[in-house]
Amino acid sequence: MNELAIRSIAGVAMIAIAILATVTGGYAFALLVAGVATAVYWEWMRMVRPWSFPWKIGGFFYALIPALALLWVRDRADNGLELVFWIFIVTWATDIGAYAAGRKIGGPKLATRISPNKTIAGLFGGMFAAGLGGALWAEYAGLGPHYFWLGAVMAFLAQGGDLFESWMKRRAGVKDSSNILPGHGGIFDRVDGLMVVAVAAAALSWVNLL
């Protein structure tokens, strides 16, 4: 089986698990979030092992805060289930849009020293896809009108999270955060943008802006 097929099957499986656990809620969602957070911290520690002690402490909170944000949104926020799916859709659309635009359009690089493959076209492609996907879900789920434009903003934040992890990997001298996901690398590689979006969405919801 070629790498693309393995990557596709693994991607579909991860999405299916995320959707099932989110819809089920309760312990199923909590266990999924806790498991992802634990994996992210483990991968973080693998990369920063020779670094200074504050990086090790910082990684604990970097993994914990998005996990708590997702749990709070799912169980405490208004329209929590719909908002979690909005977070997922915006993040997934960002990745897809950035990849497609980067491949089809190319052009100037976004951050050559951090991630040589990322382009400015990919940044805007991700923002467009996230804005569109977030708006369509907001319309379907009956969410507020602000969701029709916030998707693009969240995509910008998601790609910031992606670049931060890319910087960490470059400094650590590794290609992926780990190799536990066939064709995808590590858990951190897959949720680096989602973690940032989850915190931002939870914070806005907390202050009644979402």
From TrEMBL:
Instruction: Give the reaction(s) catalysed.
Output: a 1,2-diacyl-sn-glycero-3-phosphate + CTP + H(+) = a CDP-1,2-diacyl-sn-glycerol + diphosphate
To which protein family does this belong?
Belongs to the CDS family.
Organism the protein comes from: Sphingomicrobium lutaoense
Q: Where in the cell is it found?
A: Cell membrane
Protein's name in the database: Phosphatidate cytidylyltransferase
Which keywords does UniProt give here?
Answer: Cell membrane, Lipid biosynthesis, Lipid metabolism, Membrane, Nucleotidyltransferase, Phospholipid biosynthesis, Phospholipid metabolism, Transferase, Transmembrane, Transmembrane helix
Topology term for the membrane: Multi-pass membrane protein
Task: Decide whether keyword Ribosomal protein is in the record.
Answer: no
**Membrane-traversing stretches:** 12-41, 53-71, 83-101, 121-140, 187-207
**Quick one: a GO cellular component term?**
plasma membrane
